[in-house]
Each structure stands twice: as structure tokens, then as C-alpha cells.
Amino acid sequence: MDTARLAAEFHRTLASGGPFMVVGHAGNGERTHPAHAYGGHPVSPASCRPPPDRIAGLLGRAGLVGTARLKRDHP
């Protein structure tokens, strides 16, 4: 399922005015290929970390209203 359809499905299933929180890793759209997961376990997935504004835009187009945004910078 693509991200836009996923956001629309969240909007469809939430109670009107109900709270909704999105948590994840954001970035600048770069694709990453980590070699190890938490605990040092080997993995081989590819992932993409979209920019926060893109995520907010997709959610907004699906009808969800953002009220706050928190960003934690990693050292």
C-alpha cells in the first residue's frame, strides 16, 4: 500500500476529531541500506526516510490536521 492511500485509510477509520500520532524516522528522502538492526542482528532491507514536510503534506491531503511536530536531532 502506498503512503497516500495509507494516510487516507487512517483518516477513514479515525473517529471525527480523534487524536492521531505518527512516529518514525525522517530524513531528506535518501535510501538507506543498513547492515545491522538493533542488537547487532544482520539485516538487508532498503528503506527511505522521507522529509517531515512530505509526511505532513500526505497526511494533510488525506484530511488529517497536524497540531504539533517534534523533531529530535541525532548527534
Report the average pLDDT across residues: 78
Task: Using the alpha-carbon principal axes, give the shape.
Answer: elongated
Number of strands: 2
pLDDT below 50 for ≥5 consecutive residues: which ranges? Answer: none
In angstroms, what separates the terminal alpha carbons? 33 Å
Tell me the helix content: 25-40%
Structural class: mainly alpha
With helices defined by DSSP (H or I, 4 residues minimum), what is the helix count?
Answer: 2
Largest sheet: number of strands, sense, barrel closure: 2 strands, antiparallel
Compile the SSE list and pairings.
Blueprint: H1 3-13, E1 31-32, E2 47-48, H2 52-61
Q: In short, what is this structure?
A:
This protein is mainly alpha-helical and 75 residues long. It has helices at residues 3-13, 52-61; strands at residues 31-32, 47-48.
